Amino acid sequence: MIKLDEIPNYIAYILFDPFAAEKYYNDIFKAAYSLEHFPNRGSLLGHDELTNRDYRKIFVHNYTIIYYVEGDTVYIVDILYSASDIASKFEGEVNGNF
Fold first, then answer.
1. Which of 32, 38, 49, 76 has its Cβ near the most Cβ atoms within 10 Å?
2. Is-above-0.85 flag for pTM?
3. With 0-12 CB in 10 A as exposed, 13-18 as middle and 19+ as buried, what is 4?
C-alpha cells in the first residue's frame, strides 16, 4: 500500500522533479476528496461476494485510487502505481473479479 506522502517524496527525490511532486500530490488529494460528492464516479473494478462490496477505481496521472462506498462513507483501500498488477495486489484479500 502506498501512503499518499510517499508519492511526492518519490517524485521529488528519486525522479528529481519537486514541481511535479507537488502537482501529483494535490491532484490525487483533490480526486480522493471529490469522492465525497461523487462517490460512484469511478469505474467498477470488481465485486467481493464475502463483504458484498463493489470496488471502484479512478485514475489520477500514473496512479489508481482503489475504493469502495458503504452508506455515506468512502473507504480508500489503496493508491497504486497504474502500471501495477491490480489483481495481484488484491489476491487473497477479496473474493472478487479483479
1. 32
2. no
3. middle
CATH of 6-90, one of 3.30.470.20, 3.30.70.3290, 3.30.2310.20, 2.60.40.10: 3.30.2310.20
Over the range 71-82, which residues count as b (16 or more CB within 10 Å of their CB) and which as e?
eeebeebbbbee
Render each residue's pLDDT in the chain as its tens digit; 98 residues.
556 667 767 777 667 778 888 888 899 999 999 999 999 999 998 878 777 889 999 999 988 999 999 999 999 998 888 777 776 666 545 544 44
Q: Is 92 left (phi over 0), alpha (psi -120 to 50) or beta?
A: left
66 and 76 Cβ atoms separated by less than 8 Å: yes
